[in-house]
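FAQ

Q: What does a record look like?
A: Structure on top, sequence underneath. For example:
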């Protein structure tokens, strides 16, 4: 019986091994459809995520890349970087505005128009792509109007060429730029801005299977998506971390923590912990500011406010520097990030509590310093003035007194009898006390 089992295992094992190899090969050869979720403003981090997904889809020879998009828009430079990657992608790219209630506005509209397929879920919207300059003076002077017209004309020409290449409604695309028009999924489908409306990824893939699409270079390509494996590309820890600190409110809090930490470290050398936390927070905030549209005048006002708080401790200004610091801190916080997109702007819900909290901390420190200065000196010559002692001998201009358990030579401008209580008025250079009778 044992011999039979051994013989059977020798015969079966190679067969099982061959089946496993065939299954692995079949799985690796199975067509793949990659998906990536972008639920954030368009900035350098989201650009890196999308471009990495395009590269991965190309490397693994995916049939399709679906970008599930929900964005209010973002930075022009990052948008153009993403579009460049999409139009040059060997793998067809689909922009799918989802889930219901999502939008692809402003920069998201440009990106969607540039994709090989533009699809939307029911209850979504797109458009509102009028360019808004970030960090301009906002005045009404003629140069600003001229620059605004140049930016708008450039954006309109860009959207026209993308729409023409993709065979979409050029006029509606341009109206979204020039007139800031937005479209529902049905309006966009009827106007041939988008290719289809799909309630889910499965429905989207079924609708695209067998469809012929026109690539950006003019080639026609038929999609064969039946039985393709749907693979979600997860965000790496690095991307999750960068997305978190790209939040302007978090970047602002990190900046304030950094300034506070460094102040405490400089005020109390050797504390170490505040300096470490402050340095790390400040560096993370500066990294975030490379992603966000920062107004450097606002940043300088915040630094100026911190300097005023520090000077209030060193210079007697009767609160003027502290008040100036609070005003500078508040104005700098409001001006810090200049963006028309709420998701890339600071919220007053964060600004007001942080400014109040930081101001209270500095005011409390100023109070402690003033209190310390007003407190009577306990050491040195100054600490002896005002102390009470007892005359050991009669003082007829000069004699001995007992103070703090010590015998001192003392002088007085008036006669003092032995045993009288005396108060120290001055400590002379020759360690002689000048006293008066109480």
């Amino acid at each position: 019986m044992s011999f039979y089992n051994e013989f059977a295992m020798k015969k079966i094992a190679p067969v099982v091994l061959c089946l496993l190899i065939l299954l692995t090969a079949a799985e690796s050869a199975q067509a793949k459809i990659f998906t990536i979720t972008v639920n954030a403003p368009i900035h350098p981090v989201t650009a890196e995520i999308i471009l990495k997904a395009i590269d991965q889809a190309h490397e693994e020879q995916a049939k399709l890349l679906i970008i599930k998009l929900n964005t209010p828009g973002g930075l022009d430079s990052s948008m153009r970087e993403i579009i460049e990657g999409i139009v040059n992608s060997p793998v067809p790219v689909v922009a799918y505005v989802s889930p219901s209630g999502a939008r692809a506005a402003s920069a998201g509209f440009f990106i969607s128009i540039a994709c090989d397929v533009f699809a939307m879920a029911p209850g979504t919207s797109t458009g509102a792509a009028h360019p808004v300059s970030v960090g301009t003076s906002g005045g009404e002077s003629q140069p600003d109007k001229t620059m605004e017209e140049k930016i708008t004309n450039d954006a309109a020409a860009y959207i026209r060429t993308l729409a023409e290449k993709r065979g979409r409604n050029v006029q509606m695309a341009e109206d979204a730029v020039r007139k800031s028009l937005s479209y529902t999924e049905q309006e966009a489908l009827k106007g041939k801005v988008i290719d289809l409306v799909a309630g889910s990824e499965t429905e989207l893939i079924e609708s695209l299977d067998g469809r012929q699409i026109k690539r950006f270079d003019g080639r026609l390509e038929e999609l064969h998506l039946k039985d393709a494996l749907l693979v979600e590309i997860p965000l790496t820890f690095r991307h999750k971390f960068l997305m978190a600190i790209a939040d302007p409110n978090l970047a602002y809090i990190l900046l304030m923590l950094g300034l506070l930490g460094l102040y405490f470290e400089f005020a109390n050398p050797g504390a170490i912990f505040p300096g470490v936390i402050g340095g790390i927070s400040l560096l993370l905030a500066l990294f975030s500011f490379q992603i966000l549209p920062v107004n450097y005048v606002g940043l300088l006002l915040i630094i100026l406010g911190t300097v005023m708080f520090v000077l209030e401790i060193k210079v007697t200004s009767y609160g003027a520097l502290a008040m100036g610091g609070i005003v500078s801190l508040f104005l700098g916080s409001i001006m810090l990030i200049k963006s028309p997109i709420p998701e890339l702007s600071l919220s007053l819900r964060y600004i007001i509590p942080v400014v109040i909290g930081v101001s209270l901390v500095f005011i409390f420190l100023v109070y402690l310093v003033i209190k310390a200065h007003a407190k009577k000196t306990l050491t040195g010559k100054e600490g002896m003035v005002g102390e009470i002692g007892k005359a050991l001998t009669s003082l007829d201009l000069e004699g001995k007194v007992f103070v703090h358990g010590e015998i001192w030579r003392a002088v007085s401008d008036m006669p003092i009898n032995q045993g009288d209580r005396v108060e120290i008025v001055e400590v002379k250079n020759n360690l002689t006390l000048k006293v008066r009778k109480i």
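Q: Is there anything notable about this one?
A: The mean pLDDT is 83.
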